[in-house]
Amino acid sequence: MSSAVSIELLQKQIEDASTELAQSFLSTIDMMESLISTNERYYDGSHCRFVSAKSALIAQQMGMEGFEIFEIQTAALLHDIGKIGFPDYISSKYYSEFTNEEQKIYYKHPELGKQLLSVNSNFDSIGNIILQHHEKLDGNGFPNHLGGNEIHIGSQIISVVDFYHNAVFRRKRDRTQISESSLSAINGTALVTQSQKRSSQAVQYLLSKRKTVYNADVVDLFVRMVEYERENLSEQTILRCSVHQLTEDMIIAQDYYTTYGLLIVAKGEHVKPHIRNALIKFANNGEVPPKILVMR
């Protein structure tokens, strides 16, 4: 065998091994996201998916590229992994309702998240972003009271989006499926109205804390994003559509779960090929209706 052939074979083996490692890495992320989703009973929609999607968009708009965006997106997706196993009496409460002991438990989740990811060195940077996602510019965050530029920019992004989604979509009781009959007659304007007050209050708080608690550029980008999406949502109409006829201009109008409580797709997510394929598969198995509620 010539040296040229040997090198070519070696390169192919390296490429194959790299592909396998990447697929294993992504499969691990998917598995952890599924675990986190089962722990999100007190939200309308998926908290981790919302924070992940918006954080990635902000990172992109700030000029980041490639793997840097991927790390922030993944850290945002997994930022609450340290809450897995939290007792229900903590998960069901708002932060302002915690006792001193419950606060101590809650304060541990960024460190627990980093610790869980530390078993795989590929997650080191992602773990550090998760560790810092509750740090504040003024040094009054946790767990290490970092301030200013000591805080990873990915953590600063996640902090803003995480606050907003908690303020607008967090609830004190288990989420329940909204009946299709109640949704079939309403439009996007009604959905906007339902959460408008909470959203406005959350936005005003973020604006009042820009530069002191939250990164000003991140806040400004996110607020513009929220305002644009809410204006666009008000023009949408809800309809019932076959999973086989879903198109990429549609938005999911209701959370859909498996029979054992795993979130398949969350309200507000844009229909993408992998979402459509998943819904078709679960519809064929009877896990979701053959027609689902969407906005367009």
Can you put this structure into words, describing what you see?
This protein starts with a helix and ends with a strand. The strands form two sheets. It has a three-stranded antiparallel beta sheet, with no helix packed on it. A two-stranded antiparallel ribbon has the order 3-4. α2 (47-61) packs antiparallel against α3, α2 (47-61) crosses α8 (153-169) and α3 runs parallel beside α8. It is mainly alpha-helical. The longest helix is centred in the N-terminal third of the chain and has 35 residues, at 3-37. The protein has a domain at 3-177: Orthogonal Bundle (Hypothetical protein af1432). The chain is globular, with a radius of gyration of 21 Å. It contains twelve helices and five strands. 55% of the residues lie in helices and 6% in strands.
Present the secondary structure layout.
Elements: H1 3-37, H2 47-61, H3 66-77, H4 88-91, H5 100-107, H6 109-117, H7 124-131, H8 153-169, H9 180-183, H10 188-209, H11 216-233, E1 238-242, E2 251-252, E3 256-257, E4 263-265, H12 273-284, E5 291-295
Antiparallel strand pairs: 1-5, 2-5, 3-4
